[in-house]
User: Fold this.
Amino acid sequence: MSRHDISDERWAVIGPLLEKKKTETRGRKRKDDRLMFNGILWILKTGAPWRDLPAEFGPWNTVHKRFLEWARLEVWDDILRMLSIKAERDALIIDATFIRVHQHATGAKGGTSDRESDVQGAD
Assistant:
């Protein structure tokens, strides 16, 4: 198991939300949902382009299509909703003290613009 793969414990919770009912018997066999999910996790964790997905997850376009299919079916919303229900209360709080911004990102260059002072003076 790779460090990017989902654990068996977590898969037991998320896996059933991703399963598609088998109604079609023609065509190729559907790729494993867990393999596709692990490929999506790899993309999200690394920030790499879809085309750079390692071959161990299958063709990148298959993984991408599955990602889009789950997005269209709002599976991602269902997963987040279900995980937020089961989460500990401390995990739900976002505290701004953890977010640090570089000193140059805290304001515009040179302070307020001339346009802002013109608007204030017009009142």
The chain has a mean pLDDT of 78. The radius of gyration is 22 Å.
